[in-house]
Amino acid sequence: MRLPHRSSGAPPSRQGGHVDVLTSRTVADEPAFHRSTDRRGRYSGQPEFCRYCRLAAAESKCAPRSPRQRRPVRAGRVVRVRTGRRAVVPGTVVPAPAEDGALGPGDEARLRAMLRQLIQSVKERVTGAPSLQCAKEVLLRLEETDANFHNYELVRYLRQHICSTLGPMIEEEMEKCASEKNQGEEPGYDTVVQCVLARVQESAQYKDMMHSLKGVMTAMVGCMSSGFEEQEEEEEETQRPERQRKAHREKGSRHCTDSCSDSDSSFSQSYKFCPGKLQLIVDQLDPRQPKEVRHEALQMLCSAPPSDILGCENGASLCQRLTAALSDPDPVLSDRILKFYAQAFILLPLHMTNEIYTSLAKYLELYFLSRESHIPTLSAGVDVNNPDVTRLLKKVRLLSEYQKEAPSFWIRHPEKYMEEIVESTLSLLSAEHAPGPLLSPKILDPICFFALVDTKAVWFKKWTHAYYSRTTVLKLLEKKYKSLIIAAVQQCIQYLELCETSKADLILGHSKHCGDKQKTLYYSGQEVQYIYFIHSLCLLGRLLIYTQGRKLFPIKLKNRHDSVSLTDLVVLFIRLIYYSPSHPDTTPDVDSEDYSPASMVTEILQILCDQKECAMECLYSSTVISTLLQPIHNLMKGNEAAPHCSETALIHAAGVLARIASAEEGLALLLYGEDMSPSEEDSLTGAHVTAQFTKRLLEGEVPGLAGSALLPAVQRAFVSLCCQMCGTCEGLQALLPYSLHEAVAQARRKASLPSEGIPTPVLGSHSVSSVSQGSQNIFSMAWEESLLDDLLNFAATPKGLLLLHRAGVINDCVTFMSNQYAENLQVSRQKKVGYGVLVTQVASTAAGAAVLRDSGFVSALVAGLWSSLECGGEDTMVNHPRPTPVEPIDRSCQKSFLALVSLLSSPAGYELLGLQDLPNRAEYSLHELPTCVTDIIDRLIILNSEAKIHSLFNYEQSHIFGLRLLSVMCCDLDLLLLLEAQYQVSRVLLRAQEENISEVSGSHRGFIIDGLSVERNHVLVRMNLIGGPLERTVPPRTLDKGENPYPWPMFSSYPLPHCYRSKATRNPDIKQDADLSQLLSCFMISDKQTEWVENCQRQFCTAMKSKGHVISGGALGELLEKFVLHLTEIPAECYFPSVEYTAADADVRSESLSSVQQLGVRMAISYGKFLNLLNDGAESDLALVLKHCERFLKQQQAPVKSSLFCLQGAYAGHDWFVSSLFLMLSGDGERTLRFLLRFSRLLASALLWLPRLHLSRYLPADTVASGIHPAYFCSAHCTEMLLKTEVPLVYSAFHMSGFAPSQICLQWITQCFWNYLDWIEICHYIATCVFLGPDYQVYICIAIFKHLQQEILQHTQTQDLQVFLKEEALRGFRVSDHFEYMEMLERNYRPALLRDMRAIREQAA
């Protein structure tokens, strides 16, 4: 067999030692080599230390040191050069015989004696060579095949001579190589060797030394060749007795030398093993031969590569002889055979190692089944120091190590080889003794010994990892070796029964001994059973992961009537968590290897939770959940959780429940039970039980855990579990009655007290009290940070954010999040909520935006943006130049851009920009960085001076970036009005367009078409035109191909070109809506008020589904007037009390509107005139209506002291709902005001008319102080909750994008879908919510998301979902087309939604 060259990898390191059979660790020197494979799995021939050879060389006293071992070259170390095949090897520096490198006068005599010694040592090998070429090959490979090569005097002398001659030069060359590595990539070991070798060989010193050595050696060989034979005979007679005695002493301890080679052929070692000589070795291995003869035969056998031996015709008979010799009582003989087997496993291909493995496995199977074997019994235990047990464990471990290595290469060979290995292994593991006499001791089975050397069943994990081998393993387990699974289950049951009968104290320390390096190598019967139990536990846990493995259940056990199903097995595992003994003073440590049943079962169950199909079959059942919660039930009743149940077990159980709750199906099971019925009241579900238990833990009302040292750890585990569930809309909705946010906030306040009250330590004081106090401070800080991290889960939902405001911890939570963000640390350990979702939710409220600003989050975000946009990357060495960005927002700035888009919603925009003037300085330093959003607007958007332009390194790219950001901000109409009112953005852009005109010839004006002018034109149209997808045309940002690349007209003054407006037609008159006559007739009030409301709603739905496209806004306005008039006369339908309003027009006209309201009025009037709905004078009428509304609502407001901009007086934005009604009622101010006064009593007004509840006294005081509107914490919250169930792909897309659907919903609702829907659809939206109920506001949002599903998924991939949803209109969406779907949503969700909406006045409870 030809062996390839050794690959040029890194040199192997020294390891080794005899075997600890339990932990598979080594504790003494023991060299061995192992072949390695390249990335394609091919044999590279590189030697490494392997487990097989460590096993075979175990207990050896004089394992030879291989000459091929190398250590890496370190800086400052002398490296010696060896001539011939080895280039550079490290060693010990020895003084040279001469300073100048020349040979001294007495050196020739010494060399002659040394040369004679070398020749005599290799005489036998050379003379036995069949040819001269083979003899030369023996000499050339002498270093590799002779263990004493480096002990020869000649070799040592030559090493000293080379070191003294070339050592200084090599040191100098090594220093040069070390200094050169700073100029490029660091060279590897072989690169340095080749570099130094090439320079040394080219040097004059090397040539002179070689010339001198060659001349001296040639002269000495000539002198010795004449009288060598006579002198040799004389010395032979005098030295023969001494050599015989020496050989006799070394005979028993000599080990075979390494036969690995990096030459091109293995012929030099295998030429002696012709078929005749191999047959002689086979005969000499006969058990009837003397021990010395068999030892000599094995010595000859180990001196050649196994491939050259087993590949011969006598290979099969040789395997039989070797297998038979394994039972020989001589330990040396058995160890040498195992050594040969280990080398065979390393060097041979699978089709040959397969035969060796199966023969060894069959031998062990017969050995265990033989009653004459020396197998220990269960009662006697396993004494590794026993020679018989040691030999048996070596054989078992050799197979075990090969089992772990085989899966890495058997896929490259025919399947039959893998099948033979698998079947022989399963046959061996399934072997068991036939039942003996009644009182006879139980003999240990093979699986017990394999458990000793592979406690966690790594072999089974590797065999089932790939489908290629997993199919074979599971098929054989099902058809022939199911007894192996039955025995594993039986072992787990027996251990549980032992724990339940309170005998677990006997095995309490077994998990400690597993993996203990200092453990005495003796295992009692109980420890062996425990190790076998751990092995069975790991095997069964791995089996449950796969579908075919789960199909093996249910199984029938011996002496048991009932079968064991999958659920029974999982329940068994859970009971092991609670009933198995554990060490009560320790918490689970993820960094240490833990063999305790509780930790191992927890790991298994968490892995099962990660596999959806597996979790559905095994874990998601009421039986499993009730078993997990049973000890918690007991503790809440004041009983003991379970016998021997410790706090550690509760921590493990909380970890399993947290992993279950991380999946949608698992969370639903915990919240609603197995039948998914949230209305079940007679029995609490898992979520309610854990919430009650957690609250009692925090309040110290669990007597069973009082005074426990691990109580804080238990609290932390269950608080994380509950807060994780509260991080979802449905979880928060279910657990809201328990007020967990208050309990956790109170615990956090208590945790912060010790850190504030600790006195300052005195210098030189080392008292115990100060140390313990410092430890307590550290613990309190860690506990406080953990609670803040858990509370941040609430911020992932709109209603949870409101709860954080009410608990008074929103500032601390957001500050903690900002600190984590600054340190690039993850938040929310369990659920992994991203910063994007949290920032989006927090920025959707004014109070949240203020905390983001005060905590430094906004400044850090702005600084990161400026660094990416203007400063570029860090000043490091660039191997490849950065590509020039083509897009204005390239990948380096994309993340910062999206973060700003999510941050700048209208509530956050008013809080961050309200009453903030632009710096507009005369000079800007290049080193001056922006720190707030106002600086971004000043430096990137409103570039109205040369100083601002010159302060930018990338003017065009940065300005386009700012214009893109402005475009998204202007999609929020309230934010657009604020920018116009404070900074006159349109005027700045128009002036910039004016300056971009190239020439003026008569009436012709030519604009320069570039990136900036196209972007400004796009933004100006978007800012100055209101309309839906069919009512306005926004010019694109791209150029067309052809002669006219940009056909859209640019402008630098008003009015806008007409091409951006679609052709508008007057809406059809109500007389044209003949089908509405039946609807109008039903508005006659009836005695049965409930029936009247239902009849009106039914007629409206019929009209919308059949003739929705012909129902005009004017007709709907008339219908709304009559419906609201009659509805307010029904006391049950009125949510707010009646408020008398008697202000006259003359009194109100003198009042003034804010600049934002005035701009909004002009915008609304412009839109109404475009729709042909308004006449001249409508602007003053709308302004009067707004003034009346402001005074009317002010009567119902409560005074609030707050620093928030949005709470300083009247509603900050424009009243888009009033403007919409004004247009629907054709600009009639009196009708509009009369309708609003009546409508204000209905629940729908709270969610459709946002200024209605601004600073309202009908809301709880803490809700008003938070500045969070019910449209956000109620409507948007419910939209998120339904979206997760109804359109799960869209919900997942939002979270993948780091964006929250609640923010865009709030923007749609705030501006009544202006700019997103056409006017007729806006009217349909308002009418639908008034007629059918405010919950239809949620259903319409869900229908929109379902309509946009494909676009949302597409823009999630392109990573611009936020920009798409804010900039793009809702094209193709018609409210009437989705009525059937919304009616289905009403049937499923109306009771829960209306209950939540009606509770906005009692949310404080």
UniProtKB/TrEMBL annotation:
Required for high-level Shh responses in the developing neural tube. Together with CDK20, controls the structure of the primary cilium by coordinating assembly of the ciliary membrane and axoneme, allowing GLI2 to be properly activated in response to Shh signaling. Its main location: other. Keywords: Cell projection, Cilium, Cytoplasm, Developmental protein. Residues 111-237 form the BROMI N-terminal domain. InterPro entries: BROMI_C, BROMI_M, BROMI_N, PHAF1/BROMI, Rab-GAP_TBC_sf. Residues 1-42, 227-266 are annotated as: Disordered. The lineage of its organism: Eukaryota, Metazoa, Chordata, Craniata, Vertebrata. GO terms for biological process: non-motile cilium assembly. Gene3D superfamilies: Ypt/Rab-GAP domain of gyp1p, domain 3. Residues 245-254 have a biased composition (Basic residues). Residues 969-1400 form the BROMI C-terminal Rab TBC-like domain. It is found in: Cell projection, Cilium; Cytoplasm. It comes from Heterocephalus glaber (Naked mole rat). Residues 277-951 form the BROMI middle region domain. This is Protein broad-minded. Interacts with CDK20, which promotes CDK20 stability and function. Interacts with FAM149B1; may play a role in cilium assembly. The keyword Transcription regulation does not apply. One of its GO terms (cellular component) is cilium. It holds the Pfam family BROMI_N. Residues 27-41 have a biased composition (Basic and acidic residues).
